[in-house]
Amino acid sequence: MILLALLGATAPLPAVRLDQLGFEARGPKTAIVATDAAAPLPWTLTDAAGRTVATGRSVPFGPDPASGTRVHRVTLPRSLAPGPGYRLAVGPAASRPFAIADRPFATLARQATTFFYQQRSGVPILAAHVQRPDLARPAAHAAERVTCFAGRDQRGARWPGCDYSLDVTGGWYDAGDHGKYVVNGGISTWTLLDLHERLAAWGRPALFADGALPIPEAGNGIDDLLDEARVEVEFLLAMQIPGGKRVTVATVTDTGAPASGFRTIDAGGMAHTKVADIAWTGLPLAPHEDRQPRRLYPPSTAATLNLAAVAAQAARIWRDIDPAFAARAQTAAIRAWDAAARNPAIPASSDFAGSGGYGDKDWSDERFWAAAQLLATTGEARFREVVEGSPYLAAPAFALSWGETDFAGLLTLATDPQALSPDRRRALQSRITALADGLVKEQDGNGYGVPLAGTAYGWGSNSDLLNRAMLLGTAWQITRDPRYRDAVVGVIDYLLGRNPLDQSYVTGMGARPMMQPHHRFWAKAADPRYPLPPPGVVSGGPNSTAMNDEVAAPLKGRCTGQTCWVDDWRSYTMNEVAINWNAPLVWAAAFLDATAP
After folding, report:
1. Does 567 participate in catalysis according to the annotation?
2. What does the H/E/C string look like for 14-58?
3. Is 576 annotated in the active site?
4. Active-site residue, 177 included
């Protein structure tokens, strides 16, 4: 039994762990029981009136290395009547009451999407569009026209700045800080736009129809998911350097040597990596209370290719909705592609205080992603040549993150009817379903039923699982094999309480939701003058590999894999929130809602 004493409390956790939001009436229903019992245990499911609905015996899984415990599994009937107040008794243990509903993931999808409105920069967050009045705040970083960083970085190298400024008002704050980053904004926006493109294939094209979300744009006749995503697309476009500008970049960064060497490049069409404060701010601090000077930071090849990919994707999505915007996005995408070709190896410098580095030393995956999006949008031969000549097309393994973006291209190509030849598309689909089969196997081999092998849980492990859910959902779209959808349910079940900590990692969801994100505004635990977080925000989750903050460090050697987590606002390694983590939560929850039996 894992005890809360590890986390500073004394009460033992309940033995029966399940999705605290509830189960689908016609879908998979799995509970996990923490027990040392070697033999199967009898279980009984009762409804709100106490009537027995189903009985059976648990299936011992045995030792689970990822949690450091022994567990059993209980599989409930796939079809049960909707209603509240169900209880599961397994041997001497019993669950909390839980609900069964036709569409239990609808609320999760909607609330997770509202996260992005509340991360907006440059506009007031209005009480009319948030869940509680205390979540409203004045506009911050409004009319944000800024120029390039000039001065000494953390290694002592002097940066000369630039002779222009850009109006980069708007977009989303990245995470718990007030920086706005192109590479993280890129993968996050792609995820939401990818969801939009898939909803029709899932039979629910109007899931985010105008008026579905509580955002200021509701009522404009445009899909609300597109309205929200456009906020960040506009920011990404604004980060593009005007033509004819020459910018100084470091010749040495991220190699351990001082960035003392510089060179000047033709930077027209490239994208700055970020706009951010010149020094870190403390917690708590609402965005409108941030008084730090803001600067543009040097362009990078990765940021430029992120811009190319997302702008190309936006161009095809808005082609019939807003032709002028679509044309502007396509022009920006091609300018960025050409600029990255001129400057194919400009790294993002991590030498600046006040913001995340998002350093990356390999840009081949971003180049493939951008080529895939441009091919899907334009059909041009030059982009086809890059895609078809790339080793990424063979898809030997799955990885998807801000620093590994090739699968953001592959998932598009696998289901786009025009981008690849039928033979190439079928081959890619076979690789994707083979990878999905591997994830299902990993799920079967994990005590708590998540598609992640091994005991090492890294920074943002919850987002790793959600990105895997996107692969599984795409495999379902290709094949309609229910195993893949069931595996996505397993990911969400884990995030909402079917885990060794009996913890819902999503704010406002379940009996024991996360309450203390590492966030400068949603910081009531740090200062009662600030609000609790809104519902629908996912924690980065267990982190057993980079436990280097003041809360995580003492847990080294005292926790295992899935148990290395504490709900504490001071722990940025375990409990930060971010746009690239909430975006796949929206994708996965919307997928399950759209495809509900």
Report:
1. yes
2. CCEECCCCCEECECCCEEEEECCCCCCCEEEEECCCCCEEEEEEC
3. yes
4. yes
